[in-house]
Amino acid sequence: MYSHQHAPPPNGSKGPPDPENPGDPLVSKGRNLFFNETFSGNGRTCGTCHRAENNLTIDPAFIATLPKDDPLFVAEFIPALKKNFENPKLMREVGLILENQDGFGDLSKNFNMRGVPHVFAQRVSIDSVQGPQTGWSGDGAPGDHSLRSFATGAVIQHFTKTTQRRAGIDFRLPTDKELDALEAFQLSLGRQKDLALPLPLKNVVALRGQELFQNEGLCQNCHANAGANVGFDPNAGNFNFNTGVENLPDQPADLIGELNPPDDGNGNPGSGAFNTPSLVEAADTPPFFHNNSVETIEAAVAFYNGDSFANSPSGKLINDSPQGRINLDTTQVVAIAAFLRVINALDNIREVDVILKAVANNEYLAGEHPQDLIQRVKFDIEDAATVLAGAGLHPKAVARLNRARILTEKAASTPNSRINLAKRAINTLNRARKLITD
Amino acid sequence: MLKRSVTLFTAILFAAASFYGHTQQSSEIFIPIGKSPGISKTDTIIGEINSIDSQNGVITITDSSGTFSVKVKNDTKIWLDKSKMRKTNEVGKIADCKPGRSVEVKYKEAEKLSSVTAEWIKVEVTN
Questions:
Q1: Confidence at A12, pLDDT banded by 50, 70, 90
Q2: Beta-strand runs (E) in A195-259
């Protein structure tokens, strides 16, 4: 879900929202560009891979629901893109997208396959003393390397009609005003500030997981407050680390047998480092890591117990420190994952609360009409319930979340009752939240 | 004890991570002269090549504000902007920096000086 940009209440607040006042116009324009603008290319938009109904990302299960003429699959139906543009098998089976981040010289060999990261909480995930960090290896943007410029690189990489990539022929470049709007929209997505750990969690396993996260697990060092910034210097921001993910054995993409060149991460030649993602949004946005190598949040935590991490540059630093090699037992892995599941559910509830309040007040949100807003909140409520139920956490809260989802579905199908049903859903969500945290 | 070891570890980690920087923004090659987002005209020099000294790796270029000496290093990327020919842009070399050609130079310095070092150079090719 996205955006915290409220429009002032429309006249009377009970009637239809004022179409002349659809919220922050720049964010609204950016949202429209993000989901609808093809930049005269192959038909893809930013929203082709960053789907509104799937946490602004894609995964194999979601991809399987798409029609065969979806623009995601342009390599399957546009002849000029059949070679060296995507690998349809790795896209459909592992959710991987082809990137030429080390250059476009030999397209048949010089590429990497990477997952699609969600684009939530970018306001608190990109800035760094090293400069803005964008994309899986922190170096995704041309120009001034900013989030604003990232869209230009994405159009060139993913929107082109042919692999010749001629500006003005195979695509058009975004204008300065379009880049401004796209940046404003992306910055509006998800959390606008970091959590302040520790949280007063009510589930004992998640609570223990939070302790481990902040202490023995060492997670806090690179994911301060479960976000994307390092924990040892509040001004340092977001960093890239070589954690050895690329060296994991038996990665799904390798087992499939397609050409999948090693990914050297940040730089050219690469340092092997990849960007640190935020963890608050992790539990409902699998698969994990830049290569979609593991499917569950428990497996992602367990990675730091394994040899691939221990033998990596980052792992060796820990091995050589007084703390020694990370050695979490199964119950501790599950506890940290439970913590990540709970904070993810709470973040979904927070987002839904923002949206439902706009609906209850009959307000636009980032240019979206309340009727459109109410149509899509069910996805976040489902996510909150699913991430909790997936580990047997907070069954009573899950029941209330399911009730809130039913209320929002009723609100979506009965516009005359939309405001009252949204208010009831807010109350139900609040009860669910109080079962999870004080 | 645990807190102290964590602090020590993080200090080392910070030092290790700090060495990583931006070196790769591969799609830049396809952006025509003057269109690079956030830097064209503010952090670049757009002008015409006056002369080239291949042996010493120096070109001189002129824009509306004056003449600039541009050092071309081993890590300087040179790209041929063929967009006016409706062709694909390509990787070039210093010999492609021929007098009379239009160029855009992204300099490494924090400001536009009379002598700069090029991070990348885009050379317009029209025939």
A1: very low
A2: 240-241
Cα–Cα distance between A377 and A408 in angstroms, integer?
7
- Pairwise CA distance, residues A140 & A266, whole Å: 9
Q: A222 to chain B nearest CA, in Å?
A: 9
Contacts of A203 by beta carbon, 8 Å cutoff, 6+ apart = A338, A342, A393, A394, A436
Please report the pLDDT score of residue A47 as a whole number: 98
- pTM equals 0.93
Indicate if the pLDDT at residue A216 is higher than 80.
yes
- Number of residues in chain B: 127
Check CB contact under 8 Å for B17 and A104: no
How far apart CA A207 and CA A224 sit, in angstroms, is 17
Q: How close is the nearest chain A Cα to the Cα of B50, in Å?
A: 25
ipTM of the complex: 0.91
- CA–CA gap between residue A117 and residue A49 (Å, rounded): 9
Q: Which residues of A touch B35 (CB under 8 A)?
A: 167, 173
Cis peptide before A117 (omega within 30 of 0): no
As to burial, measured by CB atoms within 10 angstroms (0-12 exposed, 13-18 middle, 19+ buried), residue A62 is middle
When pLDDT is cut at 50, 70 and 90, the band that residue A23 belongs to is low
Nearest CA in chain B to A232: B10
| A255 contact B CB<8A | no
If phi > 0 it is left, if psi is from -120 to 50 it is alpha, else beta; for residue B88 that is beta
Q: Which of A152, A130, A155 is nearest to A141 (CA)?
A: A152
Hey, is B125 helix, strand or coil? coil
Instruction: Compute CA A210 distance to the chain's CA centroid, rounded to the nearest angstrom.
Output: 21
How far apart CA A51 and CA A53 sit, in angstroms, is 5
Given its phi and psi angles, is residue A231 left (phi above 0), alpha (psi -120 to 50 degrees) or beta? alpha
* Among candidate residues A151, A169, A121, the one with its CA nearest the CA of residue A350: A121
Amino acid at B68: F
pLDDT band at A113 (very low <50, low <70, confident <90, very high): very high
Angle between helices A176-187 and A147-158 (to 10 degrees): 110
Mean pLDDT of chain A: 93
Is A7's pLDDT higher than 70?
A: no
Cross-strand partners of A6: A365
* Residue B70, φ and ψ in degrees, nearest 5: -120, 115
Read off the DSSP letter of residue B96. G
d(CA A119, CA A121): 7
> Measured between beta carbons, which residues in chain A are less than 8 angstroms from residue B83?
166-168
